[in-house]
Amino acid sequence: MYINRTVFSEEHEAYRDTVARFMDEELVPYHAQWEKEGIVPREAWKKAGDVGILLPAIPDKYGAPGGDRLFSSIVIEEQAKRGLSGPGFTLHSDIVAPYILAYGTEEQKQAFLPKMAAGEMIGAIAMTEPGTGSDLQSVKTTAIREGDEYVINGQKTFITNGINSDLVILVTKTDPELGAKGISLILVEATREGFTKGRNLDKIGMKAQDTAELFFDNVR
Questions:
Q1: Per-residue model confidence as pLDDT tens digits over 51-103
Q2: Which of 88, 49, 43, 42 is nearest to 65 (CA)?
Q3: Which contacts qualify for 16-20: CB closer than 8 Å, 24 or more apart?
Q4: Looking at 66, 96, 117, which one is the last position of a domain?
Q5: pLDDT, tens digit (0-9, with 9 covering 90-100), for 98-142
Q6: Domain at 138, CATH number
Q7: φ, ψ (nearest 5 deg) of residue 129
Q8: Cα(114)–Cα(64) distance, integer angstroms
Q9: Helices 69-81 & 10-22, crossing angle to 10 degrees?
Q10: Domain boundary at 80, 97, 117, which?
């Protein structure tokens, strides 16, 4: 039974047409190959940025489309309709970017959000660790303050967008004595010395989505 949904405006539906056309032309024909390769190429991300599919609900002053949450919902719906499990657009746009928008400095927002909207910078969030899963109170990755810097050591696993990532929100302990209150989120650029990427992990499903191990050895 078809349900006539009234939450979407004409502007939303015009955006849906753009999203659907892009996915049919630029993602669907290549997704099977990406599943064999275990990764979505960066060029596909840049094309998504060109048509306004990335960061759809982030304000336009940061180079993003500036839509509401329904714009994000449209991207999720159209991607799901086509079984496109590879592109990690939702994590990038609706988890990583909102963290930066809500908690980042204005300098960080200006530095990262426009590049993320353009598909030039791919975001990830690193929580899960070997042996602790997603039990964040048990993470062993640490960030110890030394002067004006944090020194980060530890490892993460099963990180979506891990291989492609240029910017990672890292869950780490900045004060192990405080338990849950001693856990912080730190932005780490992939170009930082001591930050390395491990295997692109094999999975039962979602094979086109790069899922990686990440290692931090005295990263500052």
A1: 999 999 999 999 999 999 999 999 999 999 999 999 999 999 999 999 999 99
A2: 49
A3: 16/74, 16/77, 16/78, 18/51, 18/52, 19/51, 19/53, 19/74, 19/75, 19/78, 20/78
A4: 117
A5: 999 999 999 999 999 999 999 999 999 999 999 887 788 889 999
A6: 2.40.110.10
A7: -130, 155
A8: 7
A9: 40
A10: 117
